[in-house]
Amino acid sequence: MNKQYRKPVFIAFALLLVMIVISIFFVTYMQGLVNKSILMNLGEITKQDAEKIQNRIQEHKRILETIVKEIEEENVKTEQDIFNIYNRNSGNTEFSRMAILYKNGKTSTSDGKVVDLSDEINEFFSEENIQISRSRRSKVDNDEINIYSKKIYFQNEEIVVLLAIDNDKYRNLFTQNIFYGNGIECMITSKGDMIANSKNEENNGNVFDDFEKANEKEIDKINKMRTAILENDEGQINYKIQGQTYYISYQKLMIEDWSLIVIVPGNVIAKDLIQLLEIIVMIAMMIVITTLLVTIYILISNIKQKEKLYELAYIDSITNLGNYHAYLKEIRENVQIEGKKTIIILDIDKFKTFNKKYGHIKGNELLKRIGEEIKASIRKNDVVCRLGNDVFGIFFTEAVDFNSIIERLNQRLTRIKLQDYWYNIRICIGVYISDVHEKDVQGMIDKAIIAHDSVKGNYYEPYGMFTQEIEEKLSKESEIENMMEGAIRNKEFVIYYQPQIETKTGKIGGAEALVRWNKKGKCISPNDFIPLFEKNLFIIKLDEYIYETVCQNMKELKKEGYRIPKISVNVSRESLMEKDFIEKYIKIANKYEIRPNEIEIEITERTAVNDKIDMKHILEQIKEKGFGIALDDFGTGYSSLNMLEELPIDTLKIDKSFIDKIGQSHEMIHLLEIIFMITQKLQLKSVAEGVEKNEQIEYLKTLQCDFIQGYFYAKPLDYTTFKLYIRENTNDL
Ligand code: C2E
Ligand code: CA
Ligand code: CA
Question: Which residues surround ligand 1 with Cβ inside 6 Å?
């Protein structure tokens, strides 16, 4: 089961369990209550019935007493006299007949029968008081009867007067149909011998014999009841025989040692109550289960929703790996635990080209495969995420061995198979191993990125670890960043002008303004700060500052009577991309009364290529205002020759790397010839950069190169030296 579902399902089942326990408690409790109330009711019924029975039996006894008294008082002489007394008194009694028992067993009955009861003589003659017999078979008509008897003297002889009552009638003593005929009332002796019962059942057994069948546990209860009855006590119990509950109530009678006991099966007496209870429990359970189901449903859909949100927020749809946010989250959670961590930033070399060449679908497939391969080369608990484009982040919760991880990744990632075709790819990897206590997640990732960037483009070893040197370089950069604003204010940025010599005349035809950072007498090369300024966008400010200073110098030179050459100013891509670039630059030119056509703006080849469409538009605007445009470092970037036709360029500056090859590489020279041919065809001016040797000049002259810029003629010169240079190298002053 999904780990996330475990908790709510567990909670739900725990709840269910609790509810079941509560239900069982409730049912047991209710059953207890029901039992108690049933037993109480039963006790009440028994008491009432006992009273009723007592009264009736008393009445029977009174009739017998009356008869006996009359026999004694009236000095009767014959049996017939006795029967007459009986007939007189028995008008509305339930007795079926009277009998006179003689010592010899001879028995005469009021309905004229004579039977022999000699084997029962002892029973009847043993007691002086009125006796009531258990049920028995009548010797007269074999009916089930009970007998009331009393010993008297008749003509100086002991006889017993018997009054027989039919068992059917005797049963009327009891409440008939007690509990719809399911219950039974019994009159028993204190030993449990049955006197009579409300049902037409065998009457001479012992009720305890039946109870004996009760199981071991219940026998205790029965024994208690047996003792209680023996002691003429009253009470109620419930007990079970073969799964059936019986409720029993016993109550002593004021007759002999007898008790009345009422037995009712539980399913009858508690039927309605238990049914009600069952319904209540069922409803309660249904409510509980429904609530539970709803709870589970809500919990699960909640989790699902969370998962969906998580997916949206944290999952990369192409690779199904985590995205940048997931990567951050993962690392953030883990840095709480102390210890070294490893962060790896990995990207694919020339992924853009792959995309262009094979299409985006293949590109996405490649990303997916790479994700899978990285996953396969790390352990289950290590993390890989796709941070964006073709960049993957890997995270280990310990310091990994740099070489072995590079080897492992390389093994799987140098050749990738996509649908039966193998593709060779190259990956670039940056690694950062954190300190034990390090917690700045973004900083850690940044360091891995820095390590990555520091080796990006290395052909043979594109794998790098974040090192002390890199850190030093960074701190140097941050030092520069801290000082750059102040440097403008303190006029630490100074301009050097490098003359451009016209090949035809050997005189100065132009100059390029190049910045130097003069920090406390130390001159810092632009190569050390321009790339950084391009990154942090300070270049926008610096370019503008240099441009304005150039304009200022030009105005001054003019004022001093110099015939000034066209000045080239370097402008970075970042400056050009500024919305109000042209307005700003025109405004500055106006301020110093410089016409745009006195200035040439140099953009590098890379600038022109990277944002071709935008750049074309921007350059057209620059051109429209009258500025010259030079394409710098031509030959180092990716520009195609037909791009030269598209962009509004005036001047092509051929990079020093070409010039260096003059007199060395034939292929390069051939290329140079083509470049110059095209330059002339497109009527562009040409400037050769970095010319240091005379032979280079000679050759460039044969190619009809227009201008030469290089140490051979002049290094970049400070303003004062530049002024001298102009004076000496201008055609006419
Ligand atoms: P770049 O625009 O290609 O400038 C030419 C660079 O080549 C200059 O380096 C220059 O000193 C050097 N150079 C000229 N002739 C020779 C030679 O015969 N031999 C050798 N070895 N080098 C020669 P620098 O001044 O160090 O400038 C480096 C780069 O900095 C420039 O390259 C340019 O891209 C950038 N840069 C300089 N100033 C500015 C500026 O004000 N704004 C912007 N955006 N970039 C600037
Ligand atoms: Ca330049
Ligand atoms: Ca250049």
Answer: 498, 514-515, 525-527, 530, 539, 543, 546, 570-572, 632-633, 690-692, 709-711, 716
